């Protein structure tokens, strides 16, 4: 037997895709209320051809995106039964950060080969209008991680899509041709919207609260049935992962990733079942390294401050905020970012501390008063510097 054959033996996994971020489960435990609110909000789209705008907000891993996906799929089927054409598109605002890039993804839903240059925004909007007329359908645009746009004061696309219907009132009367919005954000950024957008969303704000341990248990139980072979994941393992997930801000995504890592460890060890030590090992690894997802959630300014902390701590265990702020200034110059004032800098430090990326503690009173000591939480500074540099150069 060759080396490859030797290590390609049996596995605890039946279908690992069921643990992926893009997987759409057959049911959504503990999200019935949010799903019902979406249905109630969007009923006029099918019954009267009237566009609607809804804002979903909550922490990472609280089911916002998957709920929106389930809703759009099922609502499309319902609209079809009612004789109403309905299409939808998901656009991730972290990957598509400009007005043109987002609009291009929207237009390409109907025309996949639409060129990425040579057309103005007005021409692209007209193209969308013609396609909705051609296919006689209404359209739902889902902007995921919209807080990325709003944090950079890029609200033009939201304003344009809400105005789109005002410019297409002749189509709305026909029961098709309208564009509705679902905005998804990790936090309530309602106040960052312009006045016109706020007025259309104020009655359709849907909150997704962190999952509790028993709720995560139900979610993970469903995923285990889809992803693992029977008998490979004992109930106590599901319970352990659920408790860890609840302790980590009720983050279902984190819990699912933990379950997958424990399964991979079982395969590596040649075990036919997941064991508690595999879960603990996966947790230790996850909490001692920075995942790409966690860093990607930070805006440019927080990344710059975290990079300054990392550089200050490259060769020592602790530093003070005064030193970090000096390095932050040079980081802003290096990456062509606007340097924020002292008060805002302190807010970034506090935010990074709350996220668990750094430790920020007041030191004892000295000759010049107290200061704040900064340390990294089990995260190698060199690793952080490399990852943050890559992210800032992409933005």
What ranges have pLDDT less than 50 throughout 5 or more consecutive residues? none
Sheet bearing the most strands, described?
A: 5 strands, parallel
What value does the average pLDDT take?
A: 88
Strand line-up across the major sheet = 2-3-4-1-5
Order of helices and strands: HHEHEHHEHHHEHEHHHHHHEHHEEH
Q: At CATH's second level, what is the architecture of the largest domain?
A: 3-Layer(aba) Sandwich
Measured by DSSP, the beta-strand proportion falls in 5-15%
Please identify the structural class as seen in this structure. Answer: alpha/beta
Rg from alpha-carbon coordinates? 24 Å
Helical run tally: 18
Helicity level: 40-55%
Apparent shape = globular
